[in-house]
Amino acid sequence: MHFMKQYSSLLLAVVLTGFLIACGGASEAGGDNNMGNGDDTSALSEFADALDYNISVVQADSINLSPDNLIDYYKVNFNTTGRYTFYLESLTSGTNIDYTYRLAGAVHDSQGAYLDSVNVGYQAFNSIGNENNIKEVDITIPGTYYLKFYRAEFERIVPIATSYKFHIEPSTANGLSQNSDHEYNDVQSQAAPLQLVTFQVDVNGTLNTERHTDHNDWYKLENLQIGKYTVFMKTKAGTVFRAPSDSMMIDVYNSNGINLTNYRMDVSGVLDNADRWQRKVFEVITVGDYYLKFNREYDLAATYSFKVVPSIANGYVLDADAEPNDEIHLAKNIIFTDINTTIENSVMITDTLDSDDWFKFTADISQDINITLQTLPGTQSGTYSLKAEILNKYGVIINTLPKSFFALSAANQEESDTFAVTSGDEYYIHIHRVYNLPSAYRVTLAK
Fold it and tell me: Does an H or E element contain 23, and which?
């Protein structure tokens, strides 16, 4: 509502005509982020009354609430080159949400040449007025740039009432300031940098809770070495449930922005409500930085925590309870003694993420091993059994205990069996409970 508001009707028509000839206006074929044709140049005199804007300040304004306010102009100084993220959001109060007309924020360089734009569209039936969009813009030459805000229908800028707010944030490389939840981290250039000691503990974040433009969270895992890594994920209070399919998703990217689609979590819709969990393993085959991208379907709110754990081969040290030994590459090493070797532990009792326990050992001689699996007090009764799987060095299951799904389904029960080992070979024991019921157990191995 600041400048160029003194236009007479005649002057407004002249400016509009000149703008349409020079700029080409919006283009449906170009999509939401291409309303300009990329070659548009505006005379610098058009920006003569532009207001100053400072990076990271959230600026509110409006257009077309009075008949002589068709376009808003700002100018901003980019002191350093790099990638910046342009946020634009329309506000419910004072906005005509007619879907035909899009809100645009165009960026022009110091000579008036069109550089890029962020554009906000409205939907015919379910717009709520807080429609928004973000766009990364590359600044290759330091200096003064200009911002132009307007509403447009196809090739015409039109006087449709709009209240809006905008801000521009730098990349992490350009000094982005992030809070305890690592916001802003909405695009890869803003990815919150996490070093090894940091991402092994809970990292907390939110999506779509504090602001409408928080659709994605990016995290950078710095300097990963070759090997396997496990992402442990929880949703917390504040995660809104809408339908079982509306899950939070996590994707793994490399430093070139390539999505390693084999590692997507969660395609099964598990992370669709509070107090849900999931884990996923991804493998690094080239040393370097990798990225996690979090997003939620339909822009639903989510509150979460996660941690990323390297394999034991990559130096991870399990805690006093042998946790988190939930994957084969995190298996706790055990050593046979000349008498019975006993393991006592639990699954799903101390932590909902503790759904599996893995152990490994090396056979000192070729022989048959007797294994006994017992459920202990604290085991929740249920239909299905606690299970132990014995795997060889190739990860192939060679025996399962018990044979029945229903044998170890309550506390204070036990089952025994034998399996053969070959001297010098490595073996694994995998403990888990069908449907993840809390279970305390004892495993006894006898030569």
Answer: helix 9-23
Among residues 353, 140, 121, which one has the least CA distance to residue 231? 353
Does residue 42 register a pLDDT over 80?
Answer: no
> For the whole model, what pTM was predicted?
0.85
Q: Residue 261 and residue 284: Cα distance in Å, rounded?
A: 13
Task: Could you please state the CATH topology (level 3) that the domain comprising 318-446 is classified under.
Answer: Jelly Rolls (2.60.120)
Pair of tokens at residue 228 = 């396997």
Percent helix, percent strand, percent coil in the chain, to nearest 5: 10, 45, 45
Question: What is the CATH code for 193-310?
Answer: 2.60.120.380
Q: Is 35 exposed, middle or buried (0-12, 13-18, 19+ CB in 10 A)?
A: buried
Topology classification of domain 9-173: Jelly Rolls (2.60.120)
β-pairing, 356-362 vs 332-333, is parallel
Mean residue pLDDT across the chain: 88
What's the confidence (pLDDT) of residue 40?
Answer: 66
Closest C-alpha among 223, 230, 220, 229 to residue 291: 220
pLDDT, position 77: 97
In angstroms, the CA 328 to CA 190 distance is 33
346 pLDDT exceeds 50?
yes
Q: How confident is the model at residue 16 (pLDDT cuts 50, 70, 90)?
A: very low
